[in-house]
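My main concern about presentation is that the manuscript never shows what a single data entry looks like. For the editor and my fellow referees, an illustration may be useful. For illustration, here is how one protein appears when written out as sequence plus structure tokens:

***
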Amino acid sequence: MAIVPIATAVPLIEGGQLRALAINSAQRSPVLPSVPTVAEDAIPGFEASGWQGYFVPARTPGDIVTLIQREAAKALAAPDLQARLKAIGNEPVGSTPEEFAGKFRDDLAKFARVVKDAQIPLQD
């Protein structure tokens, strides 16, 4: 058993080497529509989807942050990139710095609770 990125798993699932049991995201994946979510199948409310984002030093000027976000969102909106990302199970977002900061804070708090509740020792 393994928890792997969907882009890695799809070719192996389609090739018959793996059997998908559930998807970690809140909704079913368009690339594996018959595979239920963990929330549907086992743990109501479960969601642990991965994401990628850009981080810059804290004192980066606002106009530079805006430029990076605007250009990244523009690239993510390109139809060819949208199609390529969706074909491997990714959902391009291109959120604002404030939206991304909120997602980051929410995930940090959620997984800090998991670590605390599971009594996982903190590492240096």
The chain has a mean pLDDT of 92.
